[in-house]
Amino acid sequence: PGLPVILAALAPVAGDARTPATWPNRVAAALLPLLIVLMFRGCAPDAALVGVGLWALLSPGVRQWHYVAYSDVVALALAVVSLGALVRAEGRDRHWLAVAGLTAGVAYTVRNAALAVLVASVAALAWEWLRSDGRSWRNLVAWSAAAAVPLGALAAYNLATFGALQPYAMPPSARPWPVNLEDWVRAQLVDLHVPASWTAWVSPLAAACVLALLLAAGLRWWWRSRTDGRTHRLLTVLGCYVAAGGAMLVASRSRYEWADTIEPRHALQYSWALALLAVVAARSLGTRAQRALGGAAAVVLVLAAAQAVAIAREIRAGEPDAW
Predict the structure, then answer these.
(1) At CA 250, angle to CA 148 and CA 49, rounded to 5?
(2) CA dihedral for 90, 93, 95, 97, sign (positive or negative)
(3) Using one digit for the tens of pLDDT, what is the confidence trace for 256-297?
(4) CA pair distance 146, 81, nearest whole angstrom
């Protein structure tokens, strides 16, 4: 119910409920590059963070869905703030931990995909607790107390309205999990600006192999980064976020029969995190390789910007949706 609450608050300003329906998504999309730069400053050069922000803003998912009165892009912006605050807290600043917990809870009230934010945050804080021999338990308490405010309000609403803490229900899925795994990998590649025609090779087996290789490489990188506090924290937070989000996507589509399959709309929540992790990983490469990758990324962004302008013109010239 988070988005309806936001729209209800905006309705008196606009004079009706329909006019501000797309405002939250459009504002969230416009702020996305700035939020990534501000929340993750110090994790990568500012120019690289600007590139990650533009990469996320111009992704196929955000390009399309920020024009629609859905909760996707709002939840994405809240996820950026929450996870960025968790990284900035550096295991000791409880003001940032409170921001991280509060925005994580609000994100979940806006869109259930933000469960990945909650899972990743708890996992990262629990790992930090274990590494500190139990000394940082107060960090988990501070985060939990802040998250409990919106989550408690959501629980009360669900109980009062539906008589259950979790009222989500759909018919059983007829789509097996290997196919859903393939769908997620393909959708994630497309949302990372890979042309759809280049993903024809993706099959359930290929998707499983790619994910296994990435997981093995990621775990190796994560384990070796323990001596670099900020990088290790970033890898823990964003790695858990992407892993939890992907796992929940596949599990949810395999459990419930959605109206559609996994597509870039569902993958847009994680593209920015993957792009940021790729930027951090690229620091280990030589200067020439970094410049080559940066040049290639710039070309992709220019092409994506041209597509975004074309979509904007098409929408401006068309009639509003009847609904």
Answers:
(1) 65
(2) positive
(3) 998 899 999 999 999 999 999 999 999 888 889 989 999 999
(4) 14
